[in-house]
């Protein structure tokens, strides 16, 4: 799902008015029944698949200070939603109710691949659910998201986006022109500007570009090269030949082996026994070589260099973020007080 601080795409007569939730899910393992989870309707497991998938994941990086946190992003999303609804009400249309995501995955959690044994024994190399989110909750959130999108009328979409909507015979929706008086970019575009969030996507891209640059120079750093060699040697002891952790994650075998269509989320199949064994060895070798801590330290150093080189640009990004979050908090607070 997309961040609500970014414009929603226009497809036919519909828009996505979804939450910022990213349902990164994968498959369950044969050991799930042994965890004694409670069951809801149709035998669905109503307990989280694993207690945590991120206990040993990389911690914060220097560049993270220039990006909104998960909570700050949620606050901005809510503020934009409040302003969008107020604007759309003037044109006699509305959106389905906004719902906060049931969970999120920590930033950078999978930067070097999986790091926790309990997680890979369930997911292998496939993306895990957020901690505490069950398969049932993930599926329900996805279904609600689809239902909300379907409930948006073509006229509401035109008001939201500020763009005329084409008829969609497949979905049975009519065309809709943009009503007179709708602001540039629609009510959503205006709401982003009012919440000082209209530059959020560009600023995030600026920071992400620096992340990519730091990662590239980190890979070539002699300390990383030596670290990868130690990790690779450890993997060979288990009969597995990969030059570095990300090559194991990207092994095409994990995308072609379809051992089961029924993982914790229908978008992902269950991992094979081979995938789980490989991921377990990967995590153990990361632990044996202190991979995450060392790689994090090396990459942080490269980020610090870029921060110094881009000091003026990043100072402006950080100040816009501060003002955006402060504005969003005031909008949300005012909305709560008015209820």
TrEMBL record:
Annotated signal sequence range: 1-33
Origin: domain of life: Bacteria
Stretches for region Disordered: 250-272
Keywords linked to the UniProt accession: Signal
Name by which UniProt lists this protein: Lipoprotein
């Amino acid at each position: 799902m997309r961040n609500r601080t970014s414009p929603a795409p226009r497809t036919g007569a519909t828009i996505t008015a979804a939450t910022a939730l990213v349902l990164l899910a994968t498959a369950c393992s044969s050991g799930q029944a042994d965890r004694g989870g409670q069951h809801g309707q149709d035998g669905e497991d109503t307990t989280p698949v694993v207690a945590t998938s991120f206990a040993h994941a990389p911690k914060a990086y220097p560049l993270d200070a220039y990006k909104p946190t998960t909570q700050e992003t949620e606050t901005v999303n809510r503020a934009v939603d409040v302003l969008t609804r107020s604007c759309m009400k003037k044109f006699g249309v509305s959106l389905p109710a906004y719902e906060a995501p049931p969970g999120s995955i920590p930033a950078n959690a999978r930067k070097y691949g999986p790091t926790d044994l309990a997680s890979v024994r369930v997911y292998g190399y496939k993306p895990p659910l957020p901690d505490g989110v069950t398969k049932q909750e993930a599926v329900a959130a996805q279904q609600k998201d689809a239902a909300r999108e379907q409930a948006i009328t073509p006229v509401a979409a035109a008001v939201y986006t500020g763009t005329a909507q084409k008829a969609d015979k497949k979905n049975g929706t009519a065309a809709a022109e943009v009503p007179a008086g709708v602001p540039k970019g629609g009510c959503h575009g205006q709401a982003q500007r009012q919440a000082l969030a209209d530059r959020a996507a560009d600023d995030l891209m600026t920071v992400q570009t620096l992340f990519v640059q730091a990662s590239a120079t980190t890979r070539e750093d002699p300390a990383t090269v030596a670290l990868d060699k130690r990790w690779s040697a450890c993997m060979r002891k288990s009969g597995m030949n990969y030059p570095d952790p990300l090559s194991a994650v990207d092994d095409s075998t994990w995308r072609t082996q379809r051992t089961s269509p029924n993982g914790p989320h229908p978008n992902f199949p269950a991992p094979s026994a081979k995938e789980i064994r490989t991921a377990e060895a990967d995590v153990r070798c990361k632990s044996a070589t202190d991979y995450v801590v060392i790689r994090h330290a090396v990459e942080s150093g490269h980020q610090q260099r870029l921060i110094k080189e881009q000091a003026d640009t990043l100072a402006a990004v950080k100040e816009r973020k501060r003002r955006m979050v402060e504005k969003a908090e005031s909008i949300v607070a005012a909305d709560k007080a008015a209820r």
